[in-house]
Amino acid sequence: MSLPPRKLAIAPMLDWTDRFYRYFARQITKHTWLYTEMVNTGAILHGNQERHLKFDECEHPVALQLGGSERNDLAACAKIAQEWGYDEVNLNVGCPSERVQSGAFGACLMAEPDHVADCLKAMQDQVSIPVTIKHRIGIDDVESYDYLREFVANVAQKSETTVFIVHARNAILKGLSPKENREIPPLKYDYVYRLKAEFPELEILINGGIKTLPDTFTHLQHVDGVMIGREAYHNPYLLANVDAEIYGDDHPVLSREEVIANIMPFVEGCIAEGVPLRHISRHILGLYQGLPGARHWRRQLSDANLLKANQASLISETVKLMEAHLSRRFEQMDEIS
Length: 337
Prior knowledge:
Layout: E1 8-10, H1 19-28, E2 33-35, E3 39-40, H2 41-46, H3 49-53, E4 62-67, H4 71-84, E5 88-93, H5 98-102, H6 113-124, E6 131-139, H7 145-159, E7 163-171, H8 178-181, H9 189-198, E8 203-207, H10 213-220, E9 225-228, H11 230-234, H12 242-245, H13 256-272, H14 278-281, H15 294-301, H16 304-307, H17 313-336
Parallel strand pairs: 1-2, 1-9, 2-4, 3-4, 4-5, 5-6, 6-7, 7-8, 8-9
């Protein structure tokens, strides 16, 4: 299967980029790379693999992000990921949460580049799919670009890893929450640009604070790819023109209503399997972001009383209400003009 380049990717986001969100996002963009939420190696080796690894064929290209620091466990999980059909396996070396640190993985691994390289090499030895890494530009009060450069140089040389996804902020391991770590440490995009300039043979993706397609195009002048995080979740329809503008595929852009129509068989199938509707509906709340009636859309699809019936028809009925609302608004605007 021929895969598109990683010009644009949706970041792995814990509790957000599950298979329900990814199926939904794939209806909006065909070529953007999708990443799972981080999955701990222990959950795969000792837990319910289907729960953590199941995905729909339409999700390709899709990558599994692993959290862990034990080389043999990571290698075993990489092999399992390939057996499940993932297109890439990614090692998390960027998460700053204390829960992750207590397991000695995530961003704290940036202090151990040799160990990171060893883990990546062990994973590569087990699979033929790409093994990649996502990391920060530094940790705590280490502000020097040289720290980032030496980390990447060391890992690339010792593991032969060629794809580095760089969140352009430091990770503060003590004193800041994960949310604060996404907002308080300053963004240093120039560090990532410089990294690409110094290592042209590596594939470098940039992540952190990127919210618009114009911003994406700016970054693509300096690096190989862009990874968008929360904006792709809260305002998913911003991805509607990605395939044409970034990948050169001018297939018809689906309307919001067509996107919902496309996911309805999937939603109905999930409910038949026993999945609560709320597990799916929460991921589509941002579809009408910025449009009149968006608040009603969100309120209707997050109403606990309405969701209790667990009927997929709640989504299609809410779409009809939105269409009627938008039609009235446009008629009123025509009258005013």
